[in-house]
Amino acid sequence: MAAVIGEILSEPIGVSIDDIDLSQPLPRAARARIIAALLDRHVVVFPSQSLTREQQYEFTAQFGEVESHGGGRPGKRQDVAHVTANLDADGNPSDRFAKGANYRWHTDKPYYRTPPAITTLYAVELPPIGGDTEFANTALAYDALPDDMKRQIEGLRVVFQWEHGRRPGYYANDLPPVDHPLVRTHPETERKALYLGHHATGIVGMPEAEGAALLDELLRHATDPRFTYAHRWRAGDLVMWDNRCLLHRAVANYEMTKYRRVMHRNVVKGTAPF
């Protein structure tokens, strides 16, 4: 890019912007700078913020329509950032989430027909060490594929469903499986990227074992360290990322039964992948 947008965090992904107060409405130039940073670096970190759930929602809403929580079910406040944490029903730290989807490589809500474009995640309470989030640049991963593999996967479509429909009563399991291109074109940059992850259940028209093997091979490739960045959180960090060309996962590298990890999250509606 022609202008410096912030401090580069790693070669494949990430930039830090420390001179914008997200609790205030964004001037036009600041919003344009953030969009440029997001499209160029895919993960934007805003350190040392002080945000209420309402302020985080208002910040996120400056980049598009913010999705409702829990499928828009009654009883949930839809005009604030929602809470995601390692807490049990009594508010105590728990490790029961350690094997859940958030701790596996995924992109947010690919089981929607129009998955989200952007996520914002704000660190409220953190363990003293660990609790990182890792990101993988699937556009760089696609670029690095051999030409014969690019030809092999061009035109393939991946089936996505939340936990393969195995959790009774969860709203995402009310959604039928959807399929999206395995090679997704970014609607703004027009770069191609791999679109896959934990919620992928197979490839349309391919035998189950063969499709699973191909998806596993591509996921291992996409999450190679040369395409990844690990964010080591500090309280007050807000991290914004582009779901259209990234995978991410929380890392259970802390004492989950001893320390609280509380984050606030919003996602911006996207468009149907193509």
Summary tags:
single chain; 274 residues; alpha+beta; Double-stranded beta-helix; 7-stranded mixed beta sheet; globular
**Percent of residues in β-strands:** 15-25%
Widest β-sheet, arrangement of strands: 1-2-3-13-5-15-4
Q: Which value, in Å, is the CA radius of gyration?
A: 18 Å
Task: Note poorly predicted spans.
Answer: none
> What helical percentage do the residues reach?
10-25%
Mean pLDDT: 93
| CATH hierarchy, class | Alpha Beta
Q: How many E strands?
A: 15
The CATH homology group name: Clavaminate synthase-like
CATH fold annotation: Double-stranded beta-helix
Order of helices and strands: EEHEHEEEHHEEEEEHEEEE
Return the domain count.
Answer: 1
Biggest beta sheet summary: 7 strands, mixed
Explain briefly what this protein structure is.
The chain has 274 residues and is an alpha+beta fold. The chain contains 5 helices and 15 strands.
Written overview of the protein:
The protein is an alpha+beta fold and 274 residues long. The chain has a single domain, classed as Clavaminate synthase-like (Double-stranded beta-helix). It contains five helices and 15 strands. The chain has helices at residues 28-41, 53-60, 138-143, 147-153, 208-222, and strands at 7-8, 15-16, 43-46, 82-85, 118-125, 133-137, 157-160, 178-181, 183-185, 192-194, 200-203, 228-231, 238-242, 246-250, 262-268. The strands form four sheets. Strands 1-2-3-13-5-15-4 form a seven-stranded mixed beta sheet, with helices on one face. A hairpin with a 6-residue loop joins strand 9 (183-185) and strand 10. The longest helix has 15 residues, at 208-222. The radius of gyration is 18 Å and the shape is globular. The relative contact order is 0.25. The mean pLDDT is 93.
